[in-house]
Design a protein that fits this description.
Distance between the termini: 83 Å
Helix content: 40-55%
Region (Disordered): 1-42
Structural class: mainly alpha
Number of helices: 1
Largest sheet: 2 strands, antiparallel
Strand order of the largest sheet: 1-2
Shape: elongated
Order of helices and strands: EEH
Strand content: 5-15%
Radius of gyration: 49 Å
Length: 169
C-alpha cells in the first residue's frame, strides 16, 4: 500500500486477482493488453478516509519536528563540552605549575635559612675581625635638621606626558 498525505489520492492494488473496479474502459482510450499478476491495475482510494490512527500521525509530526531541534541542541552542546574539557585540562596544568613553584619556593627558603645558620655558626666559632654587638661599639648619629618642603614643579614647563606602555622591565 502506498503512503501519502491525507489530501492526495492514493493508488492501491485491487484485492481481486484480475478484476478492476471499472467494468468498461472509457471510450476514446485504447484497449489494454492482458495484465500479469504483478501488473494488476490500481484502483484509486480517496485518502480523506483515515489511513493511520491520529496518535500515529501525531507521533510522526512530533518526530519530524523534534529531529532538527535535537540536532541543533547536540551541535550547540558539543562546543560547550569541548570547552569544559579544555578548561579542566588547563586548570590541571596550571595547578601542577603552581605546586612546582610552591615546592621550589619552600626549597629556596630552606636553603636561605641554612646559609644564614651557617654564617652565624661561623661567626660564633671564628669571629675573625668582627666586633661583637654592644652599647660601646654601636654608633649613633644625630638626625639631620628638617628642611622646608619645596613646591613641586608645575606641569606647564613644556614637558608633555605620553602614555606609552614600557617595552620591558
Amino acid at each position: 500500500m502506498a503512503v501519502a498525505s491525507r489530501s492526495k489520492v492514493v493508488p492501491v492494488r485491487s484485492k481481486k486477482a484480475g478484476s478492476s473496479a471499472r467494468s468498461h474502459p472509457p471510450q476514446g482510450r485504447r484497449k489494454t493488453r492482458t495484465l500479469s499478476r504483478q501488473e494488476q491495475p490500481l484502483d484509486l482510494i480517496d485518502s480523506r478516509s483515515p489511513q493511520f490512527p491520529n496518535w500515529l500521525i501525531l507521533l510522526m509530526v512530533f518526530r519530524k519536528l523534534s529531529t532538527p531541534i535535537l540536532m541543533v541542541t547536540v551541535l550547540g552542546i558539543l562546543p560547550l563540552y569541548a570547552w569544559r574539557v579544555n578548561t579542566q585540562q588547563s586548570w590541571g596544568d596550571q595547578y601542577t605549575k603552581l605546586e612546582e613553584l610552591q615546592r621550589d619556593q619552600r626549597d629556596w627558603i630552606t636553603r636561605n635559612e641554612e646559609r644564614k645558620f651557617q654564617i652565624s655558626e661561623n661567626l660564633e666559632n671564628n669571629p675573625a675581625g668582627f666586633v661583637p654587638k654592644s652599647s660601646k661599639t654601636t654608633v649613633f648619629f644625630k638626625p639631620a635638621p628638617a628642611r622646608p618642603a619645596q613646591p613641586a614643579p608645575s606641569q606647564g614647563n613644556g614637558i608633555t606626558h605620553i602614555d606609552v606602555a614600557p617595552i620591558g622591565y
